[in-house]
Amino acid sequence: MSRDNLLAEDDSTLRGWPGLPDSLRRAATGPATAATFALLVVPFALGWYDAALFSPLALPGYLLFGIGTAIGNAVAPRFEFWLYWAPFLAGSYGVSVIVGYGYERWIARTDDRSSL
Amino acid sequence: MRRRTLLATGGVLVGAATTGVVSDPTGNDRLLAAARDPGDGGEASTTTERLLADTDHETTLYAIDAPSDGPTAMIFGGVHGDERSGIDVAHEVTEWYPDAGTLVVVPETDRVAVENDEREGVDGDLNRHFPADEEPRSALARGVWDAVERHDPDVVLDLHRSLGILGLHQEYVGQAVFHSPGADGEALADRLDDDAVPWYLPFHRFTSLESNASGPLLFQHAARELGADGYLFETTEFLLDRETKVEMTRLATAHVLSLHGLLEAGESA
Ligand SMILES: [Zn+2]
To answer: Considering all CA atoms of chain A, what is the largest pairwise distance in Å, rounded to the nearest integer?
Structure first.
């Protein structure tokens, strides 16, 4: 995938996000962000639906959800565990944006180097 | 959604479904087959008793005698009425065939609580009614204790489930084996981890905890008064569906019977 291609695509999809720096805008919806989010959420959601569908791929989401409930249960006991889905999705998105941002930076660096 | 995003999501979905099916925990078919098969030593004989007959608490006790001599194990389900996995497994165990000794099962110990699908029955939490150096605290507890004294078990196993996980969730005690000082809770926890907990569900690994003998729980009272090896098994509601909780509870029961010589096939398959 060429750099031009990425830019063209991002320009068209991100018109609704003016004030943000380019790198952040790309990180917010970039492919690495989406892939990370899918990896954190989808395999874990399958296991939630049916425990037999838990798999090694669900481990990151499982750890994130488990630690989230551990903190929540220590701070505010007596919440039902399904209530943790909202913070889990938000947290997963946060982690995904960080990964996506790192990925964009890495792409930018490799492109800089190859154009020398 | 952009095509790449769709592809990434689709890839993760397919990958997860595939690895999920492939890496499904193996269980322990050999052990469960040994529990369910009559074996060739001759027929076991089952007798039933009505505990607390003609009261609201009336409940059935099953005693299954193996053809050869051996220890007596008592299994309790439904001490808490809303913990269905233990009740289901205890009912199933009434159809098992021990290789030696006597298997005594009370599937719906607090029957009022079971019928109301509530943790506690009319007199509160049955599993706090067995204090040291005192009579059991309620009519139900006295009726249950009479039966325990009559059968004089070498092993007692009480089946439970918690909402969360011991060590992870501060107020919960799931995925744990509480046991009396002489009982081998550590071996039980290890065998359950081997059979039923895949490596990628690390929070669900079982913890064994030696319990002090002074508490008011049924298994503690049996250990204290009768010198029985006592176990209280807890699975969890957290991320486990009904089938998985039942399978873990079933394996815990079979392993206790095998650890104490009522079943011959013991090691993990
Ligand atoms: Zn319980």
So the answer is: 59
Look at residue A11 and tell me if it is in a domain. Answer: no
- For residue A78, the chain B residue with the least C-alpha distance is B171
Has residue A46 been placed in a domain? Answer: yes
Q: What is the ipTM of this complex?
A: 0.85
Residue in B15, B24, B202 nearest the CB of A52: B24
Q: How many domains does chain A have?
A: 1
Chain B hits for A69, Cβ within 8 Å: 164, 168-169, 238
Read off the DSSP letter of residue B211. Answer: P
Search chain A and give the residue with CA nearest B25.
Answer: A52
The residue range of the domain holding B223 is 28-259
| Alpha-carbon distances of A1 from A24, A31, A37, A109, B79, rounded to whole Å | 20, 12, 21, 15, 62
Domain assignment present for residue A59? The answer is yes
B159-199 pLDDT, tens per residue?
A: 999 999 999 999 899 999 999 999 999 999 999 999 999 99
Write out pLDDT tens, residues A43-92.
999 999 999 999 999 999 999 999 999 999 898 887 788 889 999 999 99
- The verdict on residue A72 lying in a domain is yes
pTM of the model: 0.86
Interface list for chain A against chain B, based on CB atoms closer than 8 Å = 9, 13, 31, 34-35, 38-39, 42-43, 46-48, 50-59, 62-63, 65-66, 69-70, 73-74, 77-78, 81
| Residue B27: Cβ-neighbour burial (10 angstroms; 0-12, 13-18, 19+) | middle
Number of structural domains chain B divides into: 1
Tell me which residue range forms the domain holding A96: 31-114
Q: What is the CATH number of the domain that holds B181?
A: 3.40.630.10
Interface contact A62-B201, CB threshold 8 A: yes
Q: Which of B235, B231, B155, B159 is nearest to B203 (CA)?
A: B235
Contact yes or no for B169 and A70 at CB 8 A: yes
CA angle, B184 as apex, B182 and B190 as ends, to 5°? 160
